[in-house]
Every structure is written in C-alpha cells, then in structure tokens.
Design brief:
This protein is an all-alpha fold. The chain is built from five helices and no strands. Helix 2 crosses helix 3.
C-alpha cells in the first residue's frame, strides 16, 4: 500500500488535524495516521464516513490510479 497523500491534503484543506478527523468519524487518531501512511486499509464504511466529512468522493481519496503503460 502506498501513502495516501490525497487524504492528508483534503484533511489539511479543511484545516483539520488527524484527531479532528478521527473524532468526526469515530475512530482513534492512530487509525487516520495509519491510513495516511498506507499502513491500514480502511473498511468501505470508514472510507465513506471520511469522504462525507471531507466533502470528497471515494474516487477522490481512495481510488488508486494505474499509470502503467501497456
């Protein structure tokens, strides 16, 4: 898993700390940290809650684009 810089950027754009976001979606701050570091793969329920809180879509924050050329 790679780092989720889009999540981090979206959170920062809302002027939210990891704790703010964690509190808003009812998880521990360490969970948000682990998602941003790419060390934890969140459930679809948690992804949806994060997206709603940050006014983003699942594609905006969690879709991994494949830039490989065939």
């Amino acid at each position: 898993m790679s780092k989720n810089l889009r999540l981090k950027a979206a959170r920062a754009a809302k002027d939210m700390t990891q704790k703010d976001l964690a509190d808003a979606v009812d998880v521990a701050r360490q969970t948000i940290n682990a998602i941003e570091l790419g060390e934890y793969n969140p459930s679809i329920k948690l992804c949806t809650a994060i997206c709603k809180t940050l006014d983003k879509t699942l594609n905006d924050l969690f879709w991994e684009e494949n830039n490989e050329k065939v």
